[in-house]
Predict the structure.
Amino acid sequence: MTTLSNRHKAGSGTTPPWWFAAPAMALFAFVVLIPSARGVYYAFTDWDGLSPDFSWIGLGNFAEMLDDPDARQAIWHTLVIAVAITIIQNGFGLLLALGVNTMIKSRNVLRVFLFAPAVVTPIVTAYLWRNLLGPDGAVNSLLGAVGLGSWRQDWLGDPQLALWSIVGVIVWQFGGYSMVIFLAGLQSVPREIYEAAAIDGTGPVRRFWSVVRPLLAPAFTINLMLSIIGGIKLFDQVYALTGGGPGHATDTISTLIYKDAFTLGEFGYSIALAVVLTVIVAVASTSQYFVLARNERAAS
Amino acid sequence: MNRYRARTFGLEMLMVAAGAVVAFPVYVLVNLAIRPTSDTSSPIRPTTKPTLDNFTQAWREGGLGGALFNSMLVTTLSVLVVLAVSSLAAYPLARATAKWSRGLFLLIMLGLVLPFQLAALPLYQTMRDLGLLGSVWALVLFYSGLQVPFTTFLYIGFMRALPRDFEDAAAIDGCRPLEVFRYVVFPMLKPITVTALVLNAISVWNDFFTPLLYLSGSDQQTMPVALAGFVGQFVSDWNLIFAALVISIVPILAVYFALQRSIINGFAGGLKG
């Protein structure tokens, strides 16, 4: 009898009960789902963040955005940064991975050192670079020391350059991150395939394009996804490097959300900006997902 | 093709040069942090009279000890909670095929895409109404929820590849579901738990936006917020600021170099989920 009832319990034990998911879902709902839903609602109001009185203004905030040069610029900067980081960081990351995945003696040490910046707090590297890129900073000193004094710039103070300096800092910090993911992909390429292609007399470029690249498809998916979404959400580095300046030359959607909410008290407008950010992230990640998934299937 | 040749040496030099580009800012960071303020020579020239005064002053005036403690507290507690609730949640989500299970999985996927900027302001209001603003507990609560989708997603992917035989055997032996999870499933999850631990700890430790919102104006600070305040206070005293930056980096890099293999593998492997 006991064995029978035990066995009955056992049968239900193989499918874990739903309430195992309850604590996680409760936390997730409290921190993400419910506030996000409320956020979407507030985006259509003139809420100031404090008073309990606010009114529904329909698309008012979004219409205001179209007339707001700061918002239009911030959206543009966000897109430029995301695309630039995606291309440059992954380009360097791939080259570094190919270089490290060879017979060179320093490969293990380099792998560890090139990745190291990626674990450091972004705001710390940003403050470091704010000094390095200053008019009397180390970058200009170095240019002077190697006879390129005419290249000296006010890297963060020049509105034309500041955005690209921010991109440069992020590539410096996260190039090694892309490298590590590409490297994991490269190491999954079976040596035999690579050597067979070499014996067949295939040159290194062709070998990369026809043999290695298709096998790197999953690494590309992860890397492009990470850098484009990270680029769209970018806040810390801009806050610490330029604060969105000079003027509004480097404001991104995230820095504008912060300023509009906490220095201007325009919570409703600020959340409408967050909704725009969400839509951009959603469009970018779903379209990228489908394109890259198709490529992965084609490659395998 | 596996021999070390002149071309390999050329490549080696090129790669070491890339390493030097990455190392150069760190050299300047340390070089200026150990330099007395009176020394105004070029930042790339090695410091002639190194001193540790900047470090003692930064530590004393920046409240860095308290910030370091808060960062450790918040990181440890949030990561423990996230790992516990997410691994537990992933178990039915990976195994059950019912409609509710698929529905919850879609919600988790939605959570992966939603930028936290959207939730940040309404949640700010909630935290204020609960009287949690300016408290590190608000952060523990925040990260415990924020990191759930990503962590659960990692666990689900890993768990789906695991055979069910052990669970079934344990259940037949009379283990209750919670015991099956605690003694059979969770130990098998160890590799992904290490990955999730590394990735969560680094993102919680490094986060700046949230503590900036929820702790600003209070005496409770995490390391990134304390540093931002420090930079605001000592605007152009870069030797002092750099000393503070070094203090904040040392614990992270120490952990990184000690555990570099599992950390790098965590980043490289976990994301394939």
About this structure: Chain B touches chain A through 105 residues (CB under 8 Å). Chain B has a mean pLDDT of 89.
